[in-house]
């Protein structure tokens, strides 16, 4: 009867060990599923963050373009005004050159051809 008791105890131990092994396998499956879920959530969170960053970047670029368009028109107007003013001044210079250019050329030629030699004061003081 002792051997029958050992067999029953051994069978119970074997069944208990098998139950523990099954529980360990089930726990490993649960842990593996949790790891996979966590990894998936991290990937999803990273993807969502990238989308939010891209949306924010696009929003700020649009705001900047709008701001630039609103404020650069003043610069364009100032630049156009400066260009018009420069054109007016250039035209005034051209007109002055056209109207007085002949007189200036005549005065230059006269100054070059009508030479009146005079001794400098240094030379006169040394003599």
From TrEMBL:
Purpose of the protein:
Subunit of the V1 complex of vacuolar(H+)-ATPase (V-ATPase), a multisubunit enzyme composed of a peripheral complex (V1) that hydrolyzes ATP and a membrane integral complex (V0) that translocates protons. V-ATPase is responsible for acidifying and maintaining the pH of intracellular compartments and in some cell types, is targeted to the plasma membrane, where it is responsible for acidifying the extracellular environment.
Q: Which family does the similarity line name?
A: Belongs to the V-ATPase G subunit family.
UniProt keywords, alphabetically? Coiled coil, Hydrogen ion transport, Ion transport, Transport
Under the subunit heading, UniProt states: V-ATPase is a heteromultimeric enzyme made up of two complexes: the ATP-hydrolytic V1 complex and the proton translocation V0 complex.
Protein species of origin: Aspergillus parasiticus
**InterPro entries according to UniProt:** ATP_synth_B-like_membr_sf (IPR028987), V-ATPase_G (IPR005124)
Q: Which NCBIfam families match?
A: V_ATP_synt_G
Q: PANTHER family from the entry? A: V-TYPE PROTON ATPASE SUBUNIT G, VACUOLAR ATP SYNTHASE SUBUNIT G
The molecular function terms in GO held by this entry are: ATP hydrolysis activity; proton-transporting ATPase activity, rotational mechanism
GO CC annotation: what is one? vacuolar proton-transporting V-type ATPase, V1 domain
Residue ranges the record marks as coiled coil: 20-96
Q: What is this protein called?
A: V-type proton ATPase subunit G
């Amino acid at each position: 009867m002792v051997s029958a008791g050992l067999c029953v105890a051994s069978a119970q131990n074997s069944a208990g060990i098998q139950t523990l092994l099954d529980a360990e396998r089930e726990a490993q499956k649960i842990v593996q599923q949790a790891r996979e879920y966590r990894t998936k959530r991290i990937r999803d969170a990273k993807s969502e963050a990238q989308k939010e960053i891209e949306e924010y970047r696009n929003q700020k670029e649009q705001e900047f373009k709008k701001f630039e368009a609103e404020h650069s028109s003043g610069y364009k107007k100032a630049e156009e005004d400066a260009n018009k003013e420069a054109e007016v001044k250039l035209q005034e210079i051209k007109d002055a050159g056209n109207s007085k250019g002949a007189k200036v050329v005549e005065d230059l030629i006269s100054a070059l051809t009508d030479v009146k030699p005079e001794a400098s004061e240094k030379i006169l003081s040394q003599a």
